[in-house]
Amino acid sequence: MTDDIRGFSLRSVATTPCAIVPPHLLNRLARAEDPAVQEPARRTLALDAAQRVQRRLTAELGPTAVPSVRFPDHPERTVCDVQHRQELPGRRIRGEGEPDVPDTSVNHAYDGLGVTFDFYLQSLSRLSIDGAGLPLDASVHFRRGYDNAFWDGEQMVFGDGDGRIFGDFTQSPDVIGHELTHGVTQYTANLEYVGQSGALNEHLSDVFGSLVEQYAKGQTAEEANWLIGEELLRPGVQGVALRSMKAPGTAYDDDELGKDPQPAHMDDFVQTFADNGGVHINSGIPNHAFYLAAMQLGGSAWELAGRIWYDVLTSGALPRDVDFASFAALTADAAAAYGPQERKAVLEAWDAVGVSPE
Q1: Residues annotated as part of the active site
Q2: pTM of the full structure
Q3: DSSP code of 51?
Q4: Residues ≥6 apart with Cβ < 8 Å to 305
Q5: Which alpha helices (H) appear in the chain, and where do they start and end?
Q6: Where do runs of H (alpha helix) occur along 62-194?
Q7: pLDDT digits (tens, 9 = 90+) for 312-351
């Protein structure tokens, strides 16, 4: 493991999953000269810090009790409007089976919850986030200019963005899939959100967030763009997305956002105290390994590569403090159940990013 830096244990500051926009980006924007960029970023950082306390408590308490009545064959969605305040969930606007409303953020959130539910049910036989039909709730218009979206341990929350760097966070289906997958991880392996296990927590959300979008668009691994959050960046920002699984480190290079810091190989692993040991940065390494495995295995990535990763996530064999090497070994073992060529493809993908399975 590389979670100890100069004798300091990052495990002592582990928290639960963060929002889709990582703190290193918000910290950069908080130093911008333009007040239209700086002020929303500073407010978002303050709000995110407060939300982490609640998310940490939720994770430490573990999954909530399973209700006796569930909806196994379809989602049960509720979307509320916070009306630019902070108290959740806000005013109910749209429920399951109800028609579109004038508020496009509500409709986007409703659709994103639905496609994520459908992806997990149809491709992985999982009944909602908890595997037992958990109702899916979301709140839109969280505060003003809030530059993020997050899963708070119980529901989705979306900001509208500052309008200068980021737009409406309900627009990106892979972002919704990413954040809801933090819920799946919460109900399964509940990986510690620090160092390599934290980077794998982020990695799994990027994997299944991307697969949600690919599933919705009917794309093969070859056809997919493998970008996370490509709908979020406003015109004029020099970038294509928050992250690229195909080419980590290339998602953006902008005067205000800075340069995408994600590595694609263990040779470039970033040692840092920030971002819980770089969980949003070093996730680029396993992200690239999954991309390479999916491309080698071919077809629709959720049918084989995604299934292998899901088998590991839900196996019960995944330690909460798992490192890259141990995770790689588990994926190779899971791939072997599908055949020797599948195992070979997975091992070659990890080798290509400098991870040797243990």
Answers
A1: 179, 280
A2: 0.92
A3: H
A4: 221, 290, 293, 294, 297
A5: 23-29, 35-61, 104-124, 173-187, 195-217, 274-278, 284-297, 305-313, 324-336, 340-352
A6: 104-124, 173-187
A7: 999 999 999 999 999 999 999 999 999 999 999 999 999 9
Helix (H) or strand (E) holding 17: none
CA–CA distance from 122 to each of 126, 138, 216, 307, 348 (Å)?
8, 22, 11, 12, 29
The encoded tokens of residue 114 equal 């639905």
Read off the tokens for 201.
């927590």
* Cα three-residue angle 138-59-13, rounded to 5 degrees: 120
Asked whether 334 and 327 are in contact (CB, 8 A), the reply is no
Query: If you ran DSSP here, which 8-state letter would residue 13 be given?
Result: G
Model confidence pLDDT, tens digit, residues 297-317: 999 999 999 999 999 999 999
pLDDT tens-digit profile of 241-255? 999 999 999 999 999
- Asked whether the CA dihedral 280, 281, 287, 289 is positive or negative, the reply is negative
N- to C-terminal Cα separation, the chain: 12
- Contact criterion met (CB below 8 Å) for 1 and 195: yes
* SS3 state at 303: coil
